[in-house]
Amino acid sequence: MNTFDFGIVGLGVMGRNLLLNIASNKFAAAGLDLDTEKVNSLQQEANADHKIEATTDVKHFASLIQRPRAIMLLVPAGKPVDSAIQSLLPHLEEGDIIIDGGNTYFTDTDRRFLELAEKGIHFFGMGISGGEKGARFGPSMMPGGDKKAYERLRPIFEAIAAKVDGEPCVEYLGNGSAGNYVKMVHNGIEYGIMQLISEIYDLMKRGYNLDEDTIQKTFEEWNQGDLKSYLIEITGHILKQKDEDGSRLINQISDWAKSKGTGKWTSQNAMDLQVPVPTIDAAVVMRDMSKSKPERIEAAKILTWNANQQDVKTSEAIASLKDTLFFAILITYAQGLAQLKTASKEYNYELNLETVTKIWRGGCIIRADVLEDFRKAFAANADLPNILLNSDIAKKLTDTQAGTRNVIQFAVQKGLPIAGLMNSLAYFDAYRSENLPTNLIQAQRDYFGAHTYERIDAPGVFHTQWND
Fold first, then answer.
1. Does residue 289 sit in the same domain as residue 395?
2. How confident is the model at residue 292 (pLDDT cuts 50, 70, 90)?
3. How far is CA 230 from the centre of its chain?
4. Does residue 183 carry a catalytic annotation?
5. What's 384's DSSP letter?
6. Fewer CB within 10 Å, N or C, the chain?
7. Cis peptide before 68 (omega within 30 of 0)
8. CA angle (332 as vertex; 327, 336 as ends), nearest 5
């Protein structure tokens, strides 16, 4: 009793694999699940080198873990988390630590943090990215909560995390719900990049009429250069996969995209903070649009467009598409990082964006070589309000914007939907505009509602009696 280093509640895919990862790194790990089959399955999967014990008994589970206990919850977000906490509390003591490793909305974490603090229990909200394989062999982890209590968790988390240049892809991020918030924005960026890749794929296929082998090989080649990233890598794998009849599996997969809500949360909170994230917004909207399949089938018959035939060399098309995707991905990261910057001030997280970008370099779904450039930028200037203001990143954008504009013009003439790419360019053009036409909006608001406005030639607030 009281000899196990760590406990996990919830032995589904993520919980089982994280527990095996912990045991593989020479820590004793206890598991709890109400499903006897999952408990038995874990015991069978563990080998002789693993110190693992799994149970369906909450009291026995709590008695296994050394004090102060460190227990991670890997159960569905919402009421299941509260239920798991309530079942554990009678068996915990002051100073014990509970970690919520799910995709929990950050305000729920804030509530639980305060409720458990009153009982002397430390609560962490920790984002985990990397999927099933990452959980087993090295995820990126984003913990937030009590900084002193994190020292109890650090040795285990650093051992099981993905490594980049020998550095673990986990670090204490900030106060309260900082960990869940960073993971939420991570997922918003993920939504954006996935949407951009799908639009580039569609342009290759329906716009430039590239054959399937060329499309697949192009993504493989792109993963060897500036675009090297997990999502580009798996796209190359996906496009190679064959169905049972030997045809490409991708052509048999429905375009009705599902989601779990984390991208929507990012967009909703960005609006609350008044931080523009239009590429992420577009990604959420297009998943919603995908669900209207019956309507789209009917609309395709009557909302027609006769596109002009445009002859473009394949090599030129691929070069422009590469520039466009790289440009838009940079913009998507910039939007998410700007949201984190504002949220850190609003919610007192005290985030360090160098740390955030550093732990995203490995293990997580949005890992990419370009994150090292972002890390260097924030290391050089921690107060950078937007990554686009870094001279090296700015040069990458200016070098690729010509190809981006050409591709977007081509897509518009072809009548292909590219909401993500369009919104990325619109964000870039708005951000680099010293003057925006919103002065007219200010005048309109004052005209119909006497909402007042500011002038550029004098301080103060003004109202005009406009002439009808």
1. yes
2. very high
3. 13
4. yes
5. -
6. C
7. yes
8. 150
Look up 190 and say whether it is catalytic: yes
Rounded to the nearest 10°, the torsion over CA 192, 193, 195, 200 is: 140
Show the domain range for 460. 438-468
Q: Would you give the distance in Å from CA 435 to the centre of its chain?
A: 32
Beta carbons within 10 angstroms of residue 77's beta carbon: 18
- The label of the residue with tokens 């639980």 reads 112
Task: Please pick, among 38, 53, 171, 190, the residue that the annotation labels catalytic.
Answer: 190
Strand order across the beta sheet in which 122-129 lies: 52-55, 29-32, 6-9, 70-73, 97-100, 122-129, 140-144
C-beta of residue 145 within 8 angstroms of C-beta of residue 176? yes
- Cis peptide before 90, with omega less than 30 degrees from 0? no
Two tokens, residue 111: 């509530």
Reported pTM: 0.95
pLDDT tens per residue, range 293-316: 999 999 999 999 998 887 889 999
**Catalytic residue, candidates 53, 171, 183, 414:** 183
Sequential DSSP letters for 203-236: IIIIIS---HHHHHHHHHHHTTTTT-BHHHHHHH
In a domain, 192, yes or no: yes
Q: What token pair was written down for 287?
A: 């998943």
CA distance 461 to 355: 41
158 token code pair: 């650093």
Q: How many domains is the chain partitioned into structurally?
A: 3
